[in-house]
Design brief:
The structure holds two protein chains of two kinds.
Chain A: H1 2-11, H2 14-32, H3 38-45, H4 54-71, H5 73-79, H6 88-99, H7 103-128, H8 132-138, H9 141-153, H10 155-158, H11 163-177, E1 180-181, E2 188-189, H12 203-222, H13 235-246, H14 248-262, H15 269-281, H16 296-319, H17 325-336, H18 343-346, H19 350-380, H20 386-405, H21 408-427, H22 431-455, H23 463-485, H24 496-520, H25 523-552, H26 574-595, H27 597-611, H28 617-638, H29 647-654
Antiparallel strand pairs in A: 1-2
Helix pairs in contact in A: 1-19, 2-4, 2-19, 3-4, 3-17, 4-7, 4-16, 4-17, 4-19, 5-6, 5-7, 6-7, 6-16, 7-13, 7-14, 7-16, 7-19, 9-22, 9-23, 11-22, 11-24, 11-25, 12-20, 12-21, 12-22, 12-26, 14-15, 14-16, 15-16, 16-19, 20-21, 20-26, 20-27, 20-28, 21-26, 24-25, 26-27, 27-28
Chain B: H1 3-28, E1 34-39, H2 46-57, E2 67-72, H3 79-87, E3 95-98, H4 106-109, E4 122-128, E5 132-137, H5 145-150, E6 154-156, H6 163-174, E7 180-182, H7 188-197, E8 202-206, E9 218-224, H8 245-255, E10 261-266, H9 272-286, H10 289-296, E11 306-307, H11 308-318, H12 323-332
Parallel strand pairs in B: 1-2, 1-3, 6-7, 6-8
Antiparallel strand pairs in B: 3-10, 4-10, 4-11, 5-8, 5-9
Helix pairs in contact in B: 2-10, 6-8, 8-12
The chains are: A mainly alpha, B alpha/beta.
Protein name (chain B): Tripartite tricarboxylate transporter substrate binding protein
Keywords (chain B): Signal
Family (chain B): Belongs to the UPF0065 (bug) family.
């Protein structure tokens, strides 16, 4: 009790509270802008803490780190663009709600769930303080593998109305995650001699392309986010908060998932929000189906991803083992402030540890309340014309993507993944399953090899491994039984010919994956990619056969047959909309390379708004000027990074 | 026409000429604007932290007092950034890099991937030169060098290109030790926890400051790299125990780079005076009390710099070794 009072007294000092609030506001900005991750922001903030005392330093850093997952839902709900990788699951139902005119309700539900989840995570951290060292030592490498395998089994739930496609999409995601230099044998896998690919496909780019770009085509076709739906009301926000309170058992379960899995190294935020989403989707409750605007699909991932911060601090404080990528940066702050993770943090520095708990809890409350206050203004964006929104969102996606490596490959990759995402969206290949495969692939492979090298096959007999693998198998079997029962009642299905083309292409890709893995990689680097590619071939081939059979025996779609689950094809000429979005991305990418990001933003936004149908040149110029200022403030002042010299500058230099 | 005005004209021309000459001379002197330190690893590790530390101080000692910003370019244990520095980064002093000290020897160990001329790397300086350690947990029972070399147990390491694997493989193959090497751990903190869980016995390539606070839980068995550990100068040096002269020389070649830990480099073609200014500033910074006070906060790392000229000379000298040494070194790392 004395320790808690000491920590409260230390944190109550005005400068430390100020640092916490500054951290929270920085975190909210970082979360809302796609492309700047919390990781990057934390690395930028650490040097600013050199001259602070540890309480103020950690208040700033944890304040920032705790709330990026609160505000990253803003672009996810409004535009379907995840502000960070942790908001991808929120896109599915949150954006669907916004399209129906329920943006305010989705915001209310997400912020309140985030706040409760964040405070819950802080409490878990507080409760774990006395037992965190034995807890971390109890879990062994095979247990981590079993946790990842259990996480992957959630794919069965996310697989949607055409399960074979879901399984194939998960395998495609896993296969994509193996690109780059492998961590066991140290050899290049499918990097085609490009050093850009050595570290694999950047996760933030993959998520931006996969979820962000495909939604923009739909937005263009609808004319505004919510189309003709009713005008959003402020009352919707309170309804969202009431939804969260009504679903309190779900909030607590998902917060527990977030905080406990957050403590497991290798299970990042991008994994646990899908696990929470999958967990919630098993009991959809009243209202629309999952993927069609069910509020539980917003509450579940949002409570889990905010609870993670507390959980991932557990191994960091107890052993200096970062529970997440941002914790590895926070570890640097420990070093700079002369703190040694381990028993000291639970002994002589226990007050500081408790102050971290307080910082996380207070940051989550301040962050959520701030966002709630902004809800009315944000919800109005849902009625703004797509002609204005699309160029703006494309700008943030493309410029944000360029931040990743400052390479033209960033543009290429985000557009390529965007095109894949567009195809998946239109043809009912679940992007959620792809995401889960992509984020879990490397951890599964690594933990498997570690477990095998340490104890051969005997680890399969460990009790926790048996329980978790048993649960995973039971979940998959249960889901398979439900698929078999539901045969023939799949509702509407995508057009046959493009579907056959897509599944045939994936079959060939899988086959090429098997052959190249077996021929080019040594055994330890080949086994996981080869099995994954083999399964991709199998599931894609079965999908092809199934679709061909459907083609030969056409079933006329009955009245009232609607797309199921996360499948939400565009209404209208989807191909035209998607090509327009990709064309806009290409044009902006070229402008950025030619004239630099600021001039490019101005020209592109003004030109884009004009081209997409705005009648007021003054308004187009004003929005373009505002966007350029915003890009400058975020990408030059807040996240000061060296931008490559544009081609035009090189040309002038030459003369 | 006013005569005195006419008389003043040649003087005005002269003054103008002198001013132009002075301006031109000033323009030719080295003047830094903004410098980017690119780091070949992700944020949070020693290379990143030391670069951010240097970014905070180096500008004060450079002409023009430039702002210095840090950018992470991870990939292939900094091989990606090394290739970028040697191929595409501007050689005007605006970009410098923090890469692994093992990079100049990467073409020797992995000629297929590291296909560059290491002698073109322009060194600014290196922050530390302490050797690294092999450690085991007390619970493992491996508490002497003899047990370390003769008993069967497991040592943890990161990927096969990592220093933790290279150091362990060098000891294992050079001294015919019986231990196995488990690869795939994220980093040394993970391996230390796995040691405490009893999954592996310990690891190699840990700096002294990484273990100084855990001496009640871990045994330090010996060192890898030139020099001695200031806090434990009597620790045995593994490569000294290798009997075969060629193998011993190969081991010394492998561990040589540890003598210039956390180095900074510039691209080839950087003007001589720009490089000299960077090197001079680096040395001056290393003596600055404010810098040393900040460095002391970095978990006890010992600042013992190696100037850039010295690194260049030593690397060139080392790369003149007999090709048989290179072959033996490659064998040691298999």
């Amino acid at each position: 009790m004395d320790l808690i009072l000491t920590a409260i007294a230390e944190m109550a000092q005005p400068f430390r509270m100020l640092m916490l609030v500054i951290g929270v506001f920085a975190g909210l900005v970082v979360g809302v802008v796609p492309g700047i991750g919390g990781l990057f922001a934390m690395a930028l903030l650490i040097p600013m803490t050199y001259n602070m005392d540890p309480y103020a330093a950690f208040a700033l850093l944890l304040g920032m780190g705790s709330v990026t997952t609160t505000s990253d839902t803003i672009p996810a709900i409004l535009f379907g663009v995840p502000g960070s990788v942790g908001a991808a699951a929120t896109v599915l139902d949150g954006h669907a709600m916004a399209k129906k005119g329920e943006a305010a309700r989705a915001f209310g539900a997400s912020y309140s769930a985030s706040m409760i989840g964040g405070v819950f995570g802080a409490l878990v951290l507080a409760a774990a303080i006395p037992v965190m060292r034995p807890l971390v030592l109890y879990l062994k490498t095979p247990d981590f593998f079993a946790i990842c395998a259990f996480g992957l089994s959630i794919v069965a739930i996310l697989a949607g109305s055409q399960p074979l496609k879901g399984l194939a999409a998960a395998m495609l995601g896993m296969l994509a995650s193996f690109i780059g230099i492998d961590s066991i044998a140290g050899i290049e896998r499918w990097s085609f001699g490009q050093i850009y690919l050595w570290d694999g496909l950047p996760i933030s780019l993959v998520f931006l392309g996969l979820f962000g770009l495909p939604e923009l085509a739909s937005l263009l076709l609808r004319g505004s986010i919510q189309g003709n739906a009713e005008r959003p009301t402020y009352a919707g926000m309170w309804q969202g908060i009431r939804d969260t309170l009504r679903e309190w058992p779900l909030v607590l379960r998902c917060s527990a998932i977030g905080s406990l899995l957050g403590a497991v190294p290798g299970i990042g935020i991008a994994v646990l929000d899908w696990i929470a989403y999958g967990h919630a989707s098993r009991r959809p409750g009243p209202g629309p189906k999952f993927g069609q605007g069910n509020v539980r699909g917003v509450i579940a991932p949002e409570s889990a991803n905010n609870a993670k911060e507390g959980g991932s601090l557990i191994p960091t404080i107890a052993f200096g083992v970062p529970g997440s990528a941002s914790m590895s940066i926070l570890l640097g702050a420990f070093v700079i402030h002369g703190l040694v993770p381990g028993p000291d943090m639970l002994g002589k520095n226990a007050a500081l540890t408790i102050s971290m708990v307080l910082s996380i809890a207070v940051a989550n409350i301040v962050g959520a309340v701030t966002c709630l206050l902004l809800t009315r203004q944000l919800a109005r964006i849902a009625q703004v014309s797509a002609a204005i929104l699309v160029p703006l969102v494309v700008t943030f996606i493309v410029v944000g993507a360029y931040q990743t490596n400052m390479s033209a490959f960033d543009f290429l990759l985000v557009m390529l993944v965007g095109a894949v995402g567009m195809g998946m969206k239109e043809l009912n290949w679940p992007r959620s399953a792809f995401s889960l495969g992509f984020v879990l692939g490397p951890s599964l492979e690594n933990y498997f090899f570690l477990a095998y090298q340490i104890s051969g096959w005997s680890w399969l007999k460990q009790p926790l491994v048996l329980i978790l693998l048993g649960l995973a198998i039971a979940g998959v079997v249960r889901q398979t039984v439900s698929w078999i029962k539901a045969r023939g009642s799949t509702g509407a299905l995508p057009p046959v010919l493009p579907d056959i083309a897509a599944s045939s292409a994936l079959t060939l890709l899988g086959l090429a994956g098997v052959i190249t893995a077996m021929l080019d990689f040594p055994f330890e680097a080949a086994i996981f990619p080869a099995i994954t590619a083999g399964l991709l071939t199998l599931f894609s081939l079965l999908t092809t056969v199934q679709t061909v059979l459907r083609w030969r025996k056409p079933v006329s779609p009955g009245a009232g047959m609607t797309p199921a689950g996360e499948w939400q094809p565009s209404d209208g000429p989807a191909l035209k909309g998607n090509l327009t979005v990709l064309g806009l991305c290409l044009a902006l990418a070229f402008l950025v390379l030619l004239a630099g990001h600021l001039a490019a933003t101005f020209v592109f936004v003004a030109g884009g708004i004009w081209m997409l149908g705005s009648r007021s040149p003054k308004m187009a110029l004003a929005v373009a000027a505002g966007a350029t200022l915003c890009i400058y403030a975020v990408f030059d002042l807040l996240a000061s990074q060296p931008w490559p010299a544009p081609w035009l500058a090189g040309l002038f230099k030459a003369f | 026409m006013n005569c005195p005005t006419v008389a003043r004209l040649p003087r005005a021309f002269l003054l103008g000429f002198v001013w132009m000459l002075a301006a031109l001379t000033a323009a030719q002197a080295v003047e830094f604007k903004t410098i980017t330190i690119k780091v070949g690893y992700g944020a949070g590790g020693n290379y990143d932290l030391s670069s951010r530390l240097i970014a905070r101080h180096l500008g004060r000692f450079l002409p023009g007092h430039p702002d210095i910003i840090v950018q992470n370019v991870p990939g292939g244990g900094s091989l990606k950034l090394t290739k970028m520095m040697l191929g595409s980064e501007p050689a005007d002093g605006s970009v410098i890099a923090s890469v692994s000290e093992a990079m100049p020897f990467a073409p020797t160990f992995d000629p297929a991937n590291a296909n560059f001329d290491p002698l073109t790397m322009q060194w600014i300086g290196a922050l530390s030169s302490e050797p690294c350690l092999c450690v085991t947990s007390k619970a493992s029972g491996i508490d002497t060098v003899e047990k370390f070399l003769t008993q069967e147990f497991l040592i943890g390491a990161s990927g096969k290109n990592s220093l933790s694997y290279i150091a362990a493989a060098m000891v294992k193959n050079g001294l015919n030790a019986k231990f196995g090497i488990v690869t795939g751990f994220e980093g040394s903190a993970d391996i230390l926890v796995a040691s405490q869980r009893g999954e592996v016995a310990g690891l190699c390539a840990l700096p002294y400051y990484g273990i100084a606070d855990k001496l009640d839980q871990f045994n330090i068995l010996g060192t890898i790299g030139p020099g001695t550990v200031a806090a434990a100068p009597t620790l045995p040096h593994f490569s000294d125990q290798i009997k075969d002269p060629l193998t011993r020389r190969a081991a010394q070649f492998i561990e040589f780079s540890r003598g210039f830990y956390l180095p900074l480099m510039a691209p080839p073609g950087i003007p001589r005076d720009t490089l000299d200014a960077l090197r001079k500033a680096y040395v001056e910074m290393s003596k600055d009390p404010d810098f040393l006070a900040d460095a002391a906060k970095m978990g006890g790392i010992t600042v013992d710099i190696t100037p850039g000229e010295e690194i260049a000379t030593q690397v060139a000298q080392e790369l003149k070794a007999d090709p048989a040494v290179f072959e033996a070194a490659r064998d040691l790392l298999k």
